[in-house]
């Protein structure tokens, strides 16, 4: 009778933990995010945008990621109303989450569930680079609708939310370091971090040159040359080898009479050549490929149990295996092949973000595998063989890596700029094209996104040069 009672207790305890988790789903409990949207990503890789939308599961990781994925895919599909609505849904979910007082109780249940299941049970918090892209794509929707003021608001918000997310992450990492020392796990987890493939931190991996350049371009179109100059310089710090970013900085340095900057820039990039009279500026923002998705990675970890014995546990962590990005070929402008240098490497940003959050992930995993093992040992000591077997099965099935991330983003974004005579010009690729009207003294922005054999794109005439 006692064995039967202990067995029932274990089952009902697990049921209580799981039922209390707001994020409970089959995807988060017995699988992981990358696996749940694999079909959608495969369709996107092949350029089948509608197929990617149709196979996207319904909120496998909550409203924030769902809004991001759907907002991106509907933008590629040309459904700007649906794109804006989905991105706003994600934005509203982020705002609600950031109100800590409102989510404290429910998040406590999620954390408890995560201690006995996996990190996928914790409410997803978008990284700072993802929040930057969220507002960037909201801004692109505004630009497409010729709403420059709305786009500028999103650019300002992007800088604010990225900074807030960065501060929150730094605070969380400091808390984790303190807890590692308290739990006596610093040496064990240090060995895990030493074996984990390191992305390597560079400025380009933590700052978004795409966002900075787009912001500078919009400020310049609005006549705010000082703010434009600041953001162009930030873009150049991220992408110092991009000649078109350097050209934008030199152009603004000339217009603002930044003599010292002009001299320094000329030494590195050569003297700036002013455009011919009567021309207009064509700027192409070229999104390429699909960002890499994290995969599961099993790693052994030796820890001491409550009896002081060294026990081998297995951690399930997200991981980006070495894999070259699949990028499309060259664009053409009026049947002339273009060299379009990169502005941002999104793969690199995703890997760096994972690397930065790794100590937090490893600590949670270590505490979790210990807690699961204690439940199993308790059942074994009490002679509850059924409970012991159930605990083993439960532990194995629920230990899933947290692979949640925005997985429909491009792999990289490139930039091209040229001063052209007025008239209609055409950007071409594999039989597809986008028309762009150039006017004297004006800037024409062309947005293009290419995945598989698909090309989405449009052009819009901005303010003066």
UniProtKB/TrEMBL annotation:
Residues 1-24 form the signal peptide. Keywords: Signal, TPR repeat. It comes from the Bacteria. SUPFAM superfamilies: TPR-like. The keyword Zinc does not apply. The keyword Signal applies. TPR repeats lie at residues 209-242. InterPro entries: TPR-like_helical_dom_sf, TPR_rpt. This is Lipoprotein. It comes from Photobacterium halotolerans.
